[in-house]
Design brief:
Layout (H helix, E strand, L loop, with lengths): L4 E2 L6 E3 L1 H7 L2 H13 L11 E4 L3 E8 L6 E10 L5 E10 L5 E6 L3 H15 L7 E6 L3 H10 L5 E7 L3 H15 L3 E3 L3 H5 L4 E4 L20 E4 L12 H6 E6 L2 H7 L1 H8 L4 H4 E3 H5 L11 E5 L4 H18 L3 E2 L6 E2 L2
Parallel strand pairs: 2-7, 8-9, 8-11, 9-10, 11-12, 12-15, 13-14, 13-15
Antiparallel strand pairs: 1-17, 2-16, 3-4, 4-5, 5-6, 6-7
Helix pairs in contact: 2-3, 2-12, 3-4, 3-12
Amino acid sequence: MSADTSTPAQRPLFLTDDDVEVLSDLRSAINAIRAAYSAPTDDKRNPGRIFADSGREWMRVMPSVPASGRLFGTKSINGSFADGLHVSYLISLFDKETAGLVALVDGNRVTGLRTAAASAVGTAAIVPDRPLTVGVIGSGFEAQSHVAALSLVTRFASVRVYSPTARNREAFAARFTAELGVPVSAVESAESAATGADLILCAARSRDESPTIEASWVADHASVVSIGSTTPAQRELPAKLIGRASVVVADGVDEVVHGSGDMLAARAAGIDVDGITTSLSAVLREERPVDRDRGIRIYKSTGSGLQDIVVAEALVDLARERGIGTVLPVNIVTTSK
């Protein structure tokens, strides 16, 4: 250990869950995600998830050194089965120039914010530039945040929503009819929501891990957003649909191809998932062209530390502008090696 240590002049900022709720801004998050994926990305900067698991306690760590922005860091998801399941989320942000601790952010709400923002960026890259008929499977938090985010990057002609509970889908329809200014109708089946839609949003967890839509419901030139199959056991899209796709745009190719139950099932069915899958970064950087008017185009997400870090940096910037958050009375030292 070097004796040449120093304490950064600026003390770190702590953002609570309530602070994040106040600061959450979809436009800022979308801009941060777009900038991150428009810059070069690679496995050294974004190595994916790291797991530690005792069977009783577990930790998932998602580090990232974004090419964009001023900060780098990690999100840790920390769980314990000591008394049921309890989970906490912490994002740590460091300055790229000094390695000094800049902020600690409660990550509880950041996951939902960055997921919706990333889906908005991915969707904008695959849908036609015209008013779209949208089918939504699900009416909960993910469905609501995604529709709000997608409305900022696409144009809606109409929306159909299905969820198993009539009261929930009707409340969703009433809310977004008022907010979007287009017809939003609650329908009685997932098939009714998806059939004939230009854009299908899958945002409902399958109770038995079976696909939530059927391939036959999806039009030949539709776009599909899939966010609910992030582990090998989870299913959302049928293999037949993936087999019909002209392209699958992934936020992280390796984790989507090898870690999503949908893609594992498609590979087992003989589908060349590697051949049809490309990265969101490659699409935004125009390294992989996408015909946004022809073929079935799928955006598939498993999430990443890159998204957490750049969105958390945007939240910290907004917090400092608005005087929100708690400046910690102490800091950690940085050491010269």
